[in-house]
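Session log. Operator J.P. requested a structure for one protein chain; no other inputs attached. Running the standard single-chain path with token output.
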Amino acid sequence: MNAAKARDALLAGVRGFALIFVSLVGSILLFTLTAVSLALIPAGVGVFTTPLIIGRVRAHADFRRELAARWSGVRIPSAYRPVPRRPGLGGWVGRCTTLLRDPATWHDLRWMLADMTAGFVTALLPPVLLLYLGYGWVLALGVWRPIADAGGLWFLFVHVTSLRSAYAAAALGTALSVLGLFVNPALLRGHFQLAQALLSPSREAELARRVDRLTETRHDAVDTSAAELRRIERDLHDGAQARLVAMGMNLGTIEALVETDPAKAKQLLAMARASSAEALTELRDLVRGIHPPVLAERGLADAVRALALRLPVPAEVSVDLPERARAEAPVESAAYFAVSELLTNAVKHAEADSVWVDLSYAAGALRVSVGDNGKGGARAGAGSGLSGVERRLGTFDGVLAVSSPAGGPTLVTMEIPCELS
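Structure written below.
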């Protein structure tokens, strides 16, 4: 066994020792409090205590999910339904009812019951296997004498009553510790896989969550499309359409003045030419806002590079995409406008003086990272400046993650499932 495997085994023993207390204290205490709170619901008290306690239960389960991913690479999905936060008595009743109707609540309770029993045992084994080494040799080095005088003790299946049996216990303890060096990481992983089996949402719950998500993103897509149509109509009405109407009126005046006042007609003709040029520019800008020509002609990478060139601050674009392979046009468009909005935010709101963009494709998903050295403080979620980007990505089952501590830097990562062709 190499040093790395030995270190992993020892680390698994230490982590198992920590999980013993988490399983006993956290799961037993919260399970007991939840059971008492549920029993008090008919008396009315449980209506107020149950949402608070179940909130702590979910925090406890999420903490174990984080440990599972960090310590053993076991991913445990979470599928909690949103809880209403209306004030007043009706709000408390609604929150309690929503929590009790959520299958994930009962998954948490079932998991805590197993965590304080089978989970405790699987967490106990890694440290115990290692500690048997010291325990066996302590007996062999002389502690066996007073124990033998008192009638002896059992070291697993070895009855220690003499020096010979004490050395047998030491040999057994050594063997168990060597076994622990090989199996401890697997035992720790087994502990988290037990949690995964009990905490993961059922297929029915996952399908229901998927349907809810698709319904939400469909509504967002409809709202976004309607808002985009209104923007286009407004821009046409206030911009190009107004200029074309004015140009038509000028041409009518020119037709009347061309013989009586050629100088004035020439002046109006120059104004009409300028209006046509401005209308053409506005139409091009409008088309670029719908689907930039460079995106359609040269793809996402070159379109993002063109965005970076127009920024007033230095921008670096790194591309790791298969050559001559492109995602579907709607996916590229969503990614392009998301990057455009993020770059605008970095310059305008984060006050950054340097930005960078990374484009890559792996595991069936387009991955885009946008970073800046601005003042930080960006947040995802409803009501934030990034909510529009989230809605745009949600239409394609995309996800967005934000790392933006106060003072910066900010890194926004987006992943959009797609296939390249």
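Operator note: The CA atoms of residues 52 and 96 lie 9 Å apart.
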